[in-house]
């Protein structure tokens, strides 16, 4: 099964944050699962670290190499089919990073590992 991590889920996995639910942890730790993080999440992390709104261990390159690639998380590029979904996505939620994640999940027909209630308004499967 394939899953898409929301940005906060990725950060909580890296931090071993106790707010990360056991169900999500078990999915992440199951080697049979295919876990993705969107390039949009990495972009969001880059912006927030440059604005000093987020601290990550090391540089962005070190973070990606150690915590994403090093943990066998696949990076999902943004493709045209994702943007086609984005074009028609209602504006219930205005966060551009979340909107592209929702569009990617819809286009790829995969659930999102998220605790973000803003995703509830969209026809995307969420797991927490």
What does this structure look like?
- This protein has helices spanning 7-15, 22-29, 39-50, 60-68, 80-88, 96-108, and strands at 2-5, 34-38, 74-76, 112-113, 126-127.
- It is α/β, with parallel strands linked by helices and 128 residues long.
- It has a single domain (2-127), classed as 5'-nuclease (Rossmann fold, 3-Layer(aba) Sandwich), CATH 3.40.50.
- It has a 5-stranded parallel beta sheet.
- It is globular.
- The two termini are 15 Å apart.
What is this entry, summarized?
The chain is of the alpha/beta class.
What topology emerges from the helices and strands here?
Elements: E1 2-5, H1 7-15, H2 22-29, E2 34-38, H3 39-50, H4 60-68, E3 74-76, H5 80-88, H6 96-108, E4 112-113, E5 126-127
Parallel strand pairs: 1-2, 1-4, 2-3, 4-5
Helix pairs in contact: 5-6
Properties at a glance:
128 residues; Rossmann fold; alpha/beta
Tally of domains? 1
Q: Report the end-to-end length measured between terminal Cα atoms.
A: 15 Å
> In what order do the strands lie side by side in the largest sheet?
3-2-1-4-5
- Largest sheet, strands/sense/barrel: 5 strands, parallel
Helical segment count: 6
CATH architect. name: 3-Layer(aba) Sandwich
CATH superfamily: 5'-nuclease
């Amino acid at each position: 099964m394939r899953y898409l991590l929301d940005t906060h889920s990725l950060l909580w996995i890296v931090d071993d944050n106790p707010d990360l639910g056991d169900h999500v942890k078990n999915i992440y730790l199951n080697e049979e699962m295919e876990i993705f993080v969107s390039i949009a999440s990495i972009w969001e992390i880059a912006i927030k670290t440059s604005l000093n709104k987020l601290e990550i261990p090391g540089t962005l390159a070190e973070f990606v190499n150690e915590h994403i690639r090093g943990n066998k998380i696949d990076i999902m590029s943004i493709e045209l089919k994702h943007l086609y979904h984005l074009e028609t996505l209602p504006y219930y939620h205005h966060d551009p990073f979340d909107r592209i994640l929702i569009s990617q999940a819809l286009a790829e027909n995969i659930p999102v590992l998220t605790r973000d209630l803003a995703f509830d308004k969209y026809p995307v499967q969420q797991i927490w």
